[in-house]
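lol ok so funny story. i was supposed to be doing the assay writeup but got distracted and ended up predicting the structure for this chain instead. priorities right. anyway since i did it might as well share w the group, maybe its usefull for someone
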Amino acid sequence: MSKIVISEFMDAPAVEALRQKCDVLLDETLCERPDDLMKAVADADALIVRNRTQVTADIIAAGPSLKAVGRLGVGLDNIDLETCKARDIAVLPAIGANAVSVAEYVLTTAMMLLRGPVYFRTGELQEGKWPRAELSKGREISGKVMGLIGFGSIGQTTANLAQAAGFKTIAFDEFLPADHAAWSNTASKTLAELLEQSDVISLHCPLTPETRNLIGKDELAKTKPGAILVNTARGGIVEEAALADALRSGHLGGAAVDVFSTEPISKDTAAIFADVPNLILTPHVAGVTHESNERISAITAENVLRTLQKA
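and the output, tada:
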């Protein structure tokens, strides 16, 4: 019987589906204990992870029988892809399973931030205050431009939802063919054009050597005054200190940040964002909802079982 190691949370029905056909070791703390993870994969045929487990060359070497790494999500920057390729280990992301959840997060935070601080002043009303004039300066989304950096499945789902809400959409993606159907209702732009034209900028690209610090001080200076930035992609793509500075100066109208250069968030990063106005910080949950967890887990279980059956 094949053995599967699961090092982070996975939806219970999907785990049970795996247990019906395989020997399963589920320990959600293994992502924090790499030495114990190495021992656990010593006789494993597959490893299932989220984003916190670092699937390094050492982890892979510790599992001589590994045939598959199932990813409960889509980002692959925590997996040594070159080593997996050299070992002929299948890397199996749950493509598209969390696209709706991410798109809804982007639209929700963009709408909130365009309205300014209106949703963050409940305490004042509870104290009997009435800041109506101050909070009547928010902006509508109708006719605004949302620019998507990265236009894969999640970016395209976000564009569709944004268009339904009233946004016009543009995107920057060097890897999506010019004749792809997705460009039929979203205009292709260079990065510089997108930064200059967008009222809301939403990131949907992977973290690679080419995209690390893609958005820094110079790029933020090129954005529209009052623009909103939403990062649900990966920490490290946006320079955190530069983003905080752009918010404090008032050049950016707001930002929602779901991903960070270090996760869990470090004290240094927390200090960078301390007392920054018009900022929403969330702990890498944009793509994590009850429904998406079910889809991601089910798809990953199916992917891993299919790969093991073929091996």
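The two ends are 13 Å apart (CA to CA). The longest helix spans residues 290-310.
back to the writeup now i swear
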